[in-house]
Amino acid sequence: MRHHAALAAVVLLIASTPAFAQLDSEPKTPCLWRVVLKAQPHPLLSHSFREQVKRDIVAALQPAMGVLGTVEVIDLTELPRDKWDTLWSQFDDKGFPALDASRDLTGIKTHFLTLEYRDGQYHLESRQYDGFAGLASPVVRKQSVRASEMVGRTAGLMLDRDFGLTGSFDPVAGKVDSVRVSVRGGQLGPFDERMVKVGDVFSVSQVFKTERPAPPPVRTATGKIIAAPAGSAQPPALSTKPREFTLLRVIEVGRDGTLKCGVLTLYQNPFPAKGVAGYRCMKLGTIEGPLTVRLVTSNPADQKSTGQATVRATESGFAAAADAKDLFTFKDGLFRSGRSLANVACVTVSHGGRSMPFPVPVLSSDPVNLQFEINEALERKAENLRNAVAAANRISDARNAQTICFDATAKLIEKKKNADALARAKDGLRSANASDADITDDLARLRESPDTSPEIQRLIASIERQLTALRQFNVQLQAHVKTLEAVVARENDPTIAAREVQAEALITRLTFLLGSGDVDQAINVYDQLVTLLPDNADVKAKRDKLKAEWTPKNEAHAKAREYLLKKWPGVATIPDFKESLPELGRAVDECIKNGDKYTMRKLLTTFTAMGVKLNEQVTALDPNADGDRKLATDASMVVKVLGDLEVKLTQFVDGK
C-alpha cells in the first residue's frame, strides 16, 4: 500500500452534510470479467498452447462466477494493436503500474495475465482493474509451474483469488461507523456467503461525475453492444479516486444482495460529500497471516528514529489495539506482528503522545509502508500540504471540466442541437459555480494557516490564479447561456426564418471557438456564414481579417505554432515534460514576438488538461523508490516552470 500525499504536492497546476447523488448500483447487471493474456514469444507458448490455457481459465472461473456474469479471455497476440482497448495498450506500454491511473468507468472488469517461459518454468503474473469501482488489485500475484498441463489451472486459481465483488453505497449523514452496500449483480440470483462472507474486506473509491460523455459502447455480460436509443443524450462519464486508508469489513450478508459493513478508517470524516457523486467498493483477496510494517517519514534524517514508535494491531477495531499483547516487535527497520491477523489489521502507530489509526488489508507477507512523521511539526506541515494539494487538484479539475464544457457545447451547436447545447452550457455553469464556492472556502482556510513555506505559498498562488481564470470563463459562459436561450426561443418561433436562426447559432459558436483559440474551426464557421448570408459584407470582412491575422508571419512562427498546438499536447511522461521545456519556451517566445494571441489562448486551454495528466503521473509514483523520488523532483521543477509560463501567457493574452 502506498501513501502519495507528499508526492502529489509537487503538482501545483492541478457546514451541513449534503445529500449524495444516487449512483446506479446495478443490482441486476451482470459483470463481464475479461481476462487479457499477454504471452512473451517462445516456441513452447504456441497458438494451440495458449488456446488450451484460455479454455482452462474459462473452465476454472465461469462456474464460480455463476449468475454474476460471464468470463471471456482475450489473447493480445491474436489481435492487431489498432483493435485493442485503450487500457490494453496502456498495460502493454507500462505494465501493471498502468492500472493505477485514473480513467473513466466502463463497467468491465479487466484482469491482466502475463505468461513467460524461462529457466525451465512457466511464470505467471496477474492483476485486475475493475471498471465499475475504478479500483485495481493492491498486489501483483506471481506463480511459477514446471508442468505445462498445470498452467491454465494455476492461472485460474490466481485470478479467482482476486476476483473483486463490487458494490455501491451512499453514506448516512452523521453515521460513520457502518454502511449498507448494494452489490452489483446481487439480485441476479441466489446470493449467499459462497460469494461473500462475514469478515471479508472491501477497498473504497470516491466516484465523481465529469463533464465528459460516458465512454461508449455499453456491453452486456456476453460482450454484446447495447446501442443508445436514437436521440438520447449521452450520460456524463464517471471517474474515481481511491479512498486511501478506508476499508469496509462485512458484518452481515443479506439475501437481497446487500451487505452491512463496518467502517475502518484513518479519517474522522471517511466519506466527504463535497463534489462526490457517491462511493463504490471492491472486495479484496485478503488472507490470514502475520503483518510486517515499515514506517516512512518525509525527512530522511528521521527515518532511523522510526523504531522509537509503538505499533499495535488487532482485527477487532482500533479501540482494541491498545492491548499490549498485540504489540509489534521492531528489527532491521521493520515492525512485525507477533501473531497472524485475519483479513484486516487495525494498526495503531504511537509516538510522543500522538497516535494514528491505519486500517490495513492483510494481502501477503510483503512489508506495508505507512506514512508517519516522528517529528510532530513535520506532521502538521504535511497535513497543511495535503489540504493545499487537494484544493489545487480540485481547481485543476474544475478548469479542465470547464474547458471540456466549452468544447462540447460548440460541437453540439455545430450539429444544430441548440437545445442540447443550452442544457450542456447550463450544466457546466452550475458545476463551475459550485466548484468556485467550494474552492473559495478551501482557499480561505489555507490563507488562515500559519504555514508560510514556499510549497504552500506556491500552491496558494496557483489556486488563486486558476480561480480567477475559472471566474472569467464563467462570465463568458453565462453570456453564452443567455445567447443560446435567445437562439432556442427564436428556433421554436415559427414566425422566424430558419436561416436567421441558423446564422445566430453559428455566431454563438464563433464566440466559443474564438474564446478558446480554435481559429481554424472559427474560419470554417465564417465560411458557412458567408454561404448562408452571401450579401453580408461585414461577415466577409471579419472572416478575411481573421484569416490574415491567423496566417503565420514567417517560417519560424509557423513551426512554433505547430509545436505548441500539435506536438506538445502529446507529451505524456514526466521525463517527456522535462525534456519539452526548452522547446516549449522558445515556441512561446516566437509566438509572442509575432503577436499571436490566438495560439497563446489555445495553449492556455491545454494547460489544465496537461496539469491533470502530469498529476496522474505523480500520484502513481512510489515515495520509497529512488527512481520515483527523482521523477517527483523533476515533476516539481516542471510544474514551477509551467506555472510561471501560464502567468506570462495570461498577461500577454489580456494585454498586460
Description:
This protein has 656 residues and is α+β, with helices and mostly antiparallel strands. The protein folds into 4 domains: 16-221 and 234-285, no CATH class; 288-374, Immunoglobulin-like; 375-496, Methane Monooxygenase Hydroxylase, Chain G, domain 1 (Up-down Bundle), CATH 1.20.58; 552-656. 43% of the residues lie in helices and 22% in strands. The protein contains 14 helices and 23 strands. The strands form 6 sheets. Strands 1, 2, 3, 4, 5 and 6 form a 6-stranded mixed β-sheet that branches. It has a 6-stranded antiparallel barrel with strand order 7-8-13-12-9-14. A 4-stranded mixed β-sheet has the order 18-19-16-23, with no helix packed on it. Strand 21 and strand 22 (354-361) form a beta hairpin. Helix 5 (376-414) runs antiparallel to helix 6 (418-448) and helix 5 runs parallel beside helix 7. It starts with a helix and ends with a helix.
